[in-house]
Amino acid sequence: MDADDYAFPKQKKEPIHDAEHVRNAIARFDQVEDVSDSDREEAWKRIKRAARKYDIEVSADDWRDLMRNGKKKAS
After folding, report:
1. What's the CA gap between 61 and 59, in Å, rounded?
2. pLDDT digits (tens, 9 = 90+) for 47-64
3. I want to staple 7 with a disulfide (CB 3.0 to 4.6 A). Which of 3, 14, 51, 65 is the partner?
């Protein structure tokens, strides 16, 4: 897969190449470890773009709304 097929392309985490994976990326967003807030910001933009492409409604306005357990960010 290309880097564009991941929410977090540098880490190759959370593929978003189809509707099912976009839904999974949203659901698992708070489980991604070792990424910075800026990585999350960019990943959220990619996820929202993919959600529009696959006609998926996203209720969260901001990625911070998805953070339940708040995994550690990268140093």
Report:
1. 6
2. 999 999 999 999 999 999
3. 14
